Structure formats: C-alpha cells, structure tokens
Amino acid sequence: MLTKEQEERVRLLYIEYQEDIKPLTFYVERKYHKFPKSLLKEFRDVFDHISRCYERDATEQYKEENLKKAENHFDRIKLDIYKYVSDYKKREFSRWKKKYNKYNLQDINDGMFWKKVLELEEEGEKIFSDARSVEAKNIVKACELIQDSTMKYEEITQLIDSKRELILKAKFKYVRVTFLNGIIGFIVGVVASVIATWIWECFIHM
After folding, report:
1. Coil, helix or strand for 59?
2. What is the Rg, in whole angstroms, of the alpha carbon atoms belonging to the chain?
C-alpha cells in the first residue's frame, strides 16, 4: 500500500495527464499525423514505475524510488510534448511568413503590425533558446520557458487574425499590381516587337 502522501502524488499525475498532457498529446498526434515514439516510451515508463509501487513486497524505499522515477519521466513527457507543440506552431508561422511576406505587410498600421510580429518571433526564439540551455539542469523551468515561447507564437496568430482584413487587402493589391505589370509588360513586348519588325522591314527595302 502507498502512503496518503504517495497516493496524492500519483493522483496529481493522473489529473495533470487528463487535464493538460492528454489534450496536448491529441493535438500533436493530429498535427503530425502520428504518435511520437519517444513519447510512447516515456508514457510506458511512467506507468511501469507507478505499477511497481503496488507490488506486494515493495519496501518504502523501493516505492519512493519508483514514484520519483515516474515523476521524472512525467516531467520529460511534459517537456517533449511542449517541444512538439512549439515546433509545430513555429513551422506553421514560418510557412505563413514565407507565403505572405511578399504582400508588403509592412504598410499595415504604418509598419507597426509587421514590427510587432517580428518582435514576438524574436522573443519566442530567445525564450526557446533559454529553455534549451536550462533543460539538462531544470526540466520544470524548461517546460515553463517553452510554454512561454509557444505563447509568443499564439500572440502572433491572434495579431494576424485581428488584421485579417488588412492582410487580404495587401494580398489583393499585390495580385492586382502583379497582373497590371504583366499586362503592361506584354503590351510593351508586343509594341517593341512591332517596332522592331517595322525597322527591319524598312532596312530590307532601303
């Protein structure tokens, strides 16, 4: 049997799994179209160590050691799952940035919109880098930092959504200008071709 304090620690692991880790795991599986093998191993290790705590002849030291190992593996799960979420959101923003950067978004709100987007991206990258630097020493702190980094990309998404109409206008402007430039280029090409042909004909008949 576990002590009340040990049972409470196990209960908190299950609560955090149900309320936080499980939804994020579904999110990762849906976005990546697969269940990461590294997470599967960590989940297995967590519940394997918890199950050992209920062995009939388990000593207090043995139970405490396995419970601590279960908690450590659970912290590793949190860190890895947040990394997956953060990585997906960063790549999602990178795709958006590559697609929309050509639409001259710098004109929105006199450049303040694009400036804010780049500032949030820089902050997110800085926080993520800080998380990686403390990961080996303090997983809990690294988890907090990666969550903060992910929130920067959430802020970018919200900012983009708030300027959706202006972004679409910038896109249509780009398409219109590109179309007009294409027509002008075509007309200039045709006129140049006609003039060149006329000059050639005049040269031949001289």
Report:
1. coil
2. 29
